[in-house]
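stage 2 :: seqdesign
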């Protein structure tokens, strides 16, 4: 099952949240073995794969381990990407600040690879597609911030003055949307699913033109 996860909804309960996507689907499908195949941040919308039985979960986990599941995201960089295609190979590790967990580029972290493709420049900002080749926590957000171009509306990795700026533009969320997934069925048939950019994000781009 692939669902279009709305922004603001966690994929599972915990950390003060009573429930998440997986809990809701399990409630809707009693008796089925429903599991998350991968995760999306609470602030990220878009395509999320769920496995509906153990065999499907094992098969999809194998595809993830073999880098066969292709994940592409749409995001707005708060800065100008100078080239049409940029490969970022920077390890990502975690650290704590004021009791909160953050991620950052860290030579002692785990290997991480993101491809940024420029779609269109909007003034000093760049609308890009980001493709994940590894699945580190907050990977796109951390790599974007490392480039000096944090995601618009990112409350964790962008400067406070830029957060204030985007809020004034009417952006009430982080500009990151999981727009495309490519994976394979048990029979080896390729599946390509996509989710259109939510109206609040496409509307912002129209205002920036």
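stage 2 :: out
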């Amino acid at each position: 099952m692939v669902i279009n996860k709305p922004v603001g909804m966690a994929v599972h309960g915990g950390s003060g949240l009573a429930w998440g996507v997986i809990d809701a689907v399990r409630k809707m499908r009693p008796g089925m073995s429903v599991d998350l195949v991968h995760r999306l941040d609470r602030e990220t919308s878009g395509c999320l794969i769920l496995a509906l039985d153990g065999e499907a979960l094992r098969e999809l986990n194998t595809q993830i381990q073999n880098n066969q599941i292709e994940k592409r995201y749409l995001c707005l960089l708060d800065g100008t990407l100078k080239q049409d295609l940029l490969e970022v190979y920077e390890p990502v590790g975690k650290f704590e600040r004021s009791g909160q967990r953050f991620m950052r580029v860290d030579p002692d972290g785990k290997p991480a690879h993101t491809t940024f493709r420029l779609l269109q420049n909007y003034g000093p900002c760049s609308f890009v597609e980001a493709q994940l080749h590894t699945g580190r926590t907050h990977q796109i957000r951390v790599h974007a911030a490392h480039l000096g171009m944090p995601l618009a509306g990112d409350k964790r990795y962008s400067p406070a003055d830029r957060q204030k700026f985007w809020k004034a533009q009417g952006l009430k969320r982080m500009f990151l949307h999981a727009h495309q997934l490519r994976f394979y069925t048990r029979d080896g048939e390729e599946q390509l699913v996509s989710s259109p950019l939510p109206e609040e994000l496409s509307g912002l781009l129209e205002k920036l033109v």
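stage 3 :: structure notes
- The helical segments are 21-28, 54-65, 139-146, 160-168, 199-208.
- The chain has one domain: 2-208.
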